[in-house]
Predict the structure.
Amino acid sequence: MKEMILRTRINVCSYDELSDADKAVVDAARAATANSYAVYSNFSVGAAVRLGNGTVVSGSNQENAAYPSGLCAERTTLFWANSQYPKEPVEVLAIAARSAQGELELPITPCGACRQVMLETEKRFGNKMKIILYGTRQCYVIDDGVRALMPLSFDSDSLE
Ligand code: THU
């Protein structure tokens, strides 16, 4: 039997080390947490994307009394961006979160369903997105696209 080792490269930095353009996307994600509808979890997530034309749009998690009917911030944002700007690739996606205690020191990472939607977005536009996960103490920056967060992923290639 052969071993297959899968590696992920994540750059760890502080908010101050980000470029001004990336800070703007992170700031939009942080601000979007204020618009979260998280009455059941009290966990507010914001996401923001910068598109190929420079537009930054954001979204937040929207919960529902029938729990599975809610949607994460990442998918809310990507579906909104892709439906409003169907020709603009997503170049950067930033994610931020706050609990009842305030902003989190360490980043959260997107759930599996959101990673799958992020992958579809990359496939759709033919580019890798930069993913910035914000924490007050540390940020994680992933430059290699969503596959870094989801090795052995399933996409349209698998259907051929
Ligand atoms: N949530 C997100 O919006 N994004 C994530 O990456 C993880 C979880 C939301 C879903 C739910 O509204 C709340 O956070 C608690 O899971």
